[in-house]
Specification:
The protein is an all-alpha fold. The protein is 80% helix and 0% strand. The protein has one domain. It contains six helices and no strands.
């Protein structure tokens, strides 16, 4: 096993980890969804009850962020699988670029992934699997 193959295998493992962390941190917004559901169910009724549209605001916007975070986590894990199998180099590069926005772990992983994928010997590994 060459050094490039070991680097790609390590990057794949780190993609699984960052994907899992991204999915986990996306679950933070479930707290807001729970508050919105509690508002709809009347848990905050009283003299100064919040309006119902605020409850829907607390449900819908966090739900969008949760779905977006889980989708991004799925793409990161998919990039890890593609790195392991040496497939879709362009897809892996795009996901690595997007990962650079996820401070601090995604940034480090994205930069290292881009650096490794730009090497000519790694390009040949991906080309060999495509044929």
């Amino acid at each position: 096993m060459t050094e490039d193959e070991r680097n790609l295998d390590l990057l794949a493992i780190f993609h699984y980890i960052v994907g899992g962390l991204t999915a986990l941190f996306s679950c933070f917004f479930l707290i807001h969804v729970a508050v919105g559901i509690a508002m709809l169910c009347g848990a905050f009724d009283g003299k100064d009850a919040p309006p119902k549209f605020l409850a829907w605001f607390f449900i819908l916007f966090p739900a969008v962020f949760i779905v977006a975070g889980w989708t991004l986590a799925g793409f990161i894990v998919a990039a890890g699988r593609k790195l392991k199998r040496r497939l879709s180099r362009t897809f892996c590069l795009v996901i690595a670029g997007i990962e650079c926005m996820l401070m601090p772990f995604g940034t480090v992983l994205g930069v290292f992934t881009i650096v490794v994928l730009m090497k000519d010997s790694v390009k040949q590994l991906f080309a060999a699997n495509r044929a």
